[in-house]
Amino acid sequence: MINAEIKAAQNQKELNIYELKNQVRTLYCQIAYLQHNQEKLDGLDSLYAAFVNIAKLRYKTGDTKKIEVSTAETKRGEVNLIARQNEVYLQSAYTRLQALLNIPDSLIIRTGTAYTPLQVQILIDSSRIADHPILQSLYQRMIVAEQTKKVEKAQGLPDFKIGYNNQSLIGYQTLDGVDTYFDGSKRFSVVNIGLAIPITYGVTKAKLKSLDFQKQSLKTQAEQQTILLNAQLQSAITQYRQDILQYEYYRTQALPNTDEIVKSAQLGYRTGDISYIEYLYAIQTATDVQLNYLKSIQQINQTIVNINSLINK
Description:
The protein has five helices and four strands, in the order H-H-H-E-E-E-E-H-H.
């Protein structure tokens, strides 16, 4: 029973490590995304700054109205707000990661210049769900309940006692009304048989019944948890496939066109070939595509973290 309890304590420790590992992975992926998102937002600020400058120049020359300058400044302000909010999210993620890792000093993560999705083997054997720490903990608690039941059952059983005594009686002894002398050669044997029934037998019986219910409850929980984890794994794999499709769209179709859209729009607005509404729409489209491209990578990475947690990888 002691070994089973030690194993249960080890499983609980592994469960705590499992949860900590998943939180750290999630925060790392979030920090990587927010850092690259910040770089992109800084670049977009330059784009909208150029919009403001062109609008002011055209206003001074009398080609446009004041509303174009105000619109350009407003859109640049919106981008700045998004950038500042991103900084808050980034600092918050760093703070939580430092707390999880128990690091008192400031923490800096170098994610590199390239921001690409993590990789995962999509053909995942669902049997690996059995390695999940939650299931391992439930199964071990079942073993502890069974071992405890055996101990309680042994303590509640009647105790049979038998004793044997062999001795000699020297001297005169009355036997059938006649005094008879016995010397040391005469031996007498006595056998004692007893039955001890524990006074806590009724309590023990109730404990055994309670342990049976406990074991059955743990078994039911393990079965339900297995079904739930398998469903979550299949859902995560489906989500991963969808994430890949979205990422590939932005990478191969939408993103390559953004630079050309911005360049053409800047030239057209500077020369007066397009209105500021058309220009604003063009750079807003480019902004959305570039930011959504980064989000698509973050979505893939978070889904992979989820898959790896389900198979305890």
